[in-house]
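Input/output pair, single chain:
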Amino acid sequence: MPHFEGKFVPPKPPKIEEVVQKSLEKTAAKIDETLATRLEETNERVSQIREELALRGGEYVGTINLGITQITQILTEIARQVASRN
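Output:
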């Protein structure tokens, strides 16, 4: 470097605060992107479930009622057994 008249200044390593800030910004952006993607997927799935419920609502009501009846019978039997032990 025969024509260089200045003083060589080695590049300064970035400050820890700068590194942490950039890392946080990248991480926050990635989290935001991931959350947006998952929210969109969830909204699509909810729409599918709503459509399915609208189409099969009657079937589900019957299945739920049957399940409630079975649970009621089981709980009644358990209560009877507990009462008989006392």
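The chain has a mean pLDDT of 86. The CA atoms of residues 53 and 60 lie 8 Å apart.
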